[in-house]
Write a structure and sequence with these properties.
Layout (H helix, E strand, L loop, with lengths): L5 H23 L2 H27 L5 H30 L3 H8 L1 H17 L6
Length: about 130
């Protein structure tokens, strides 16, 4: 198994969870919940994409500087994510449960990927 492909597969599966969940939310949930899901999912997928790009561009032979840069960028994105979540709840009036459900698309993609890895690596029982 090529371990370098795992983040791309994880991001793709998380995007698939978002794309499947979005029309379901708009079809079966209240409007505020669906908008919260859309906003939360978009924010977390954007955050994951930016994180992956920063890690790919990192120059790892300079460990101390790179680690500080990656952690600094992570904390800046975390603060910005908190500000965006506050703005969505306070000013756009989205449902907080829908927002949290949207934020969970990346962990759901991870869970789906781990299930697929488990199924792919199972060995058939001998008779």
């Amino acid at each position: 198994m090529n371990l370098e492909r795992i983040p791309g597969i994880w991001f793709l599966l998380s995007g698939a969870v978002y794309v499947v969940g979005l029309p379901l939310c708009f079809a079966f949930a209240p409007r505020e919940f669906a908008i919260g899901f859309a906003a939360g999912g978009a924010l977390v997928l954007l955050n994951a994409w930016v994180s992956a790009r920063r890690i790919k561009k990192a120059d790892f032979p300079n460990r101390g500087r790179v680690t500080a840069s990656l952690l600094g960028g992570f904390y800046v994105r975390l603060i910005m994510l908190g500000i965006c979540l506050y703005a969505f709840i306070a000013y756009v009036h989205v449902d907080p449960v829908g927002l949290v459900t949207g934020l969970s698309v990346v962990p759901a993609g991870l869970l789906f990927m781990l299930v697929l890895i488990y199924v792919a690596n199972r060995r058939p029982e001998e008779v």
